[in-house]
Write a structure and sequence with these properties.
Distance between the termini: 53 Å
Helix content: 25-40%
Number of strands: 19
Mean pLDDT: 96
Structural class: alpha/beta
Shape: globular
Strand content: 15-25%
Length: 471
């Protein structure tokens, strides 16, 4: 946490609001002296914190959540200004922060309990999960609170200190989490934020006092973090991109599937690593499902995220919207058809982050929109002849975060789930993180695991105790 009296770096990070394209706020990046002071404070605080019982840590972490949620309206408004999510949805992330945090607090006792093998006469043997030390959490802008909480709260519960670095687009989010920690009475230095540029972040990952890193962001960003940590032999959790598919079987409830998949594709303007970006539909219900999906998309109201009737806000920046426009235009040139008319979304404007949603049909895997991450409000729909074709196409990707199946047949869904290459397989839902289940990706979607009792594994070190008892 930056000292107001310290010498400042001339370098600044600027948040350009997607709402109006104006500067929303600026922050100076931390000086080398501030980074050094933060590391020293974190190390000192961690030694005292790890001596506390889990129950004592839980009291303070729950108090942090209480203090954070008490400012829900403020957080929702600030999110709209920083990254464009409509205020009508802002409370969902604040509630989700609380849900995940409290679940991980509750699971800490079981996750961190000593593991004892079968008794052996004359010996006492057990495995204990011990804290790593000082952790670095690097959080993105698209879900700045939900992604941070995945490692911040369990990291603290495991006995670590945490340094939090947020995107330049959402610096207030880091400040608000630390503000809640101070209000809750966390020991000074235990949980701190640092505003850093890429060079500084790389240097911090390479610092010997950082004992573990949790990164959420792009595949390219994950590669940079992995290179920075090379040779350090520390846990590096990487939650990266997705090109997540949905499969609508012939027996699916089409009304439910269309509503759920539309939400998964267009919520947060499609800016979700586990959002739906590819849809495969059995030929027997392809036309009916596509019509229903178009009907759901037409219910969206694109506009200023500060207005309560808006359900589809701007993308985070014009450059991100331009990438989606380019993918869509290329697909149309290759023979795809768009089913939504931009005129139905009058707030859409060229060369701006205000982008109308689009549903593409007659698409193929030769098109970038079905192959590369879009991270925007566009989705392609393909007809498939059977389950085998659906699974083959779902697995035809370098990414593998989640996949969803829409069907009334649970046993078939289980069989298909075993064949699908993804970290999470959903049935009749999508784009949701259950804090009692492991959150993980395969292939280029990342490495490591957060949430659930398993998530504590990369935030701790296993230590074995092997005692021969006195005679």
């Amino acid at each position: 946490m930056s000292s107001p009296n310290a010498a400042r770096s001339p370098d600044r990070m600027t948040c350009i609001s997607p709402v109006d394209g104006e500067v929303y706020l600026e922050r100076a990046t931390a000086t080398a002296q501030e980074v050094e002071a933060a590391l020293i404070r974190a190390q000192q605080a961690q030694l005292e914190w790890q001596a506390l019982q889990i129950e004592e840590r839980a009291v303070l972490c729950n108090a942090l959540v209480d203090a954070f949620q008490a400012q829900a309206d403020r957080h929702a408004l600030e999110l709209a200004w920083q990254m464009g999510r409509p205020v009508c949805f802002g409370g969902g992330e604040i509630n989700g922060f609380g849900e995940r945090a409290r679940s991980m607090i509750e699971q800490a006792g079981a996750a961190l309990a000593d593991i004892e093998p079968p008794p052996r006469a004359g010996f006492r043997r057990f495995i204990r999960r011990t804290p790593l030390g000082v952790l670095l959490t690097i959080a993105p802008w698209n879900y700045p609170y939900l992604t941070a909480v995945n490692s911040v709260i369990p990291g603290l519960m495991a006995g670590n200190a945490v340094l939090l670095k947020h995107s330049h687009q959402t610096p207030l989010c880091a400040e608000r989490i630390i503000e809640a920690g101070l209000a809750a009475g966390l020991p000074a230095g235990l949980l701190q934020f640092l505003h850093l540029d890429r060079r500084q972040t790389t240097a911090l990952v390479q610092d010997a006092r950082i004992a573990g890193v949790s990164f959420t962001g792009s595949v390219a960003g994950g590669e940079q973090i992995e290179r920075a940590a090379a040779g350090r032999f520390i846990p590096v959790g990487l939650e990266l991109g997705g090109k997540d598919p949905a499969y609508v079987r012939a027996d699916a409830d089409l009304e439910t599937a269309a509503a759920g998949i539309a939400d998964g594709a267009f919520f947060n303007s499609g800016q979700s690593c586990c959002g739906i970006e590819r849809i495969y539909v059995h030929t027997s219900c392809y036309a009916a499902f596509t019509d229903a999906l178009v009907g759901e998309a037409r219910k969206l109201r694109l506009g200023n995220p500060l207005e309560p009737e808006t359900t589809l806000g701007p993308m985070v920046r014009t450059a991100a919207a331009e990438l989606v426009r380019e993918q869509t235009a290329a697909a149309l040139q290759q023979g795809a058809r768009g089913l939504l008319d931009g005129q139905d979304f009058p707030a859409a404007r060229e060369q701006s982050p205000y982008l109308a949603p689009q549903i593409l049909v007659d698409v193929t895997h030769e098109m970038a929109v079905m192959r590369d991450e879009s991270f925007g409000p566009v989705v392609g729909v393909m007809a498939v002849a059977d389950d085998n074709e659906a699974v083959r196409l779902m697995n035809d990707s370098t990414l593998g975060l989640t996949a969803s199946i829409w069907s009334r047949d649970v046993e078939v869904a289980l069989r298909l789930g075993d064949a699908i290459t993804a970290g999470t397989v959903f049935l009749n839902r999508c784009d949701y993180l259950d804090p009692e289940l492991a959150w993980t990706g395969v292939r280029n979607s990342g490495r490591g695991c957060s949430l659930s009792t398993l998530g504590y594994g990369q935030l701790t070190q296993a230590k074995s105790f092997h005692f021969r008892l006195p005679e």
